[in-house]
Amino acid sequence: MDTTTSSTTGNGSGSDKAAAAMQSAKGTYNEIKGVAQKSAASLRSDLSSLKNDLDSLVNRSSSLSDDELAQAHAQLMAKFSSVRYAAKGIATEASRQLNRGMETTTEYVKDKPMQSVAVAVGTGLLLGLLFKRR
Q1: Which pTM value belongs to this model?
Q2: By CB atoms within 10 Å of each CB, which of 49, 60, 76, 114 scores lowest?
C-alpha cells in the first residue's frame, strides 16, 4: 500500500512540476514580451527622431557652414550609433528568448515524449485536413 501511495504521489509531483514549469514559462514569456514591446517602441521613437533630424538637416544644409555641417554630422552619427546599439540589444534578447523557448520545449518533450508525439500527430492531421480543403 505504501508503494501505491508513493507512486501516486510521484506522478502527482511530476504533474505539479510540469504545471509549475508551464506557469513559470508563461510568466517569463509575458514579462519578456512587455520588455520587448517597450524596447521596440523606444527604438521606433528613436528611429523617427533620427529621420526627422536628418530631414531637418537636409532642408537647411545649404545655409550651414562647413563647421556646422560637421557638427550636425557628428550628432547624427552619435544618434545612429545609439539606435544601432539598441537594435543589437533587441536582437540579442530575441535570440536569447528563442534559445530559452527551444530549451523549454526540449525539456517538455523529454519529460513527456508520448504526449508530445500525440500533440504533433494531432497538429499534423489538423493541418492536413485544413490544407486538403483548399
Answers
A1: 0.52
A2: 114
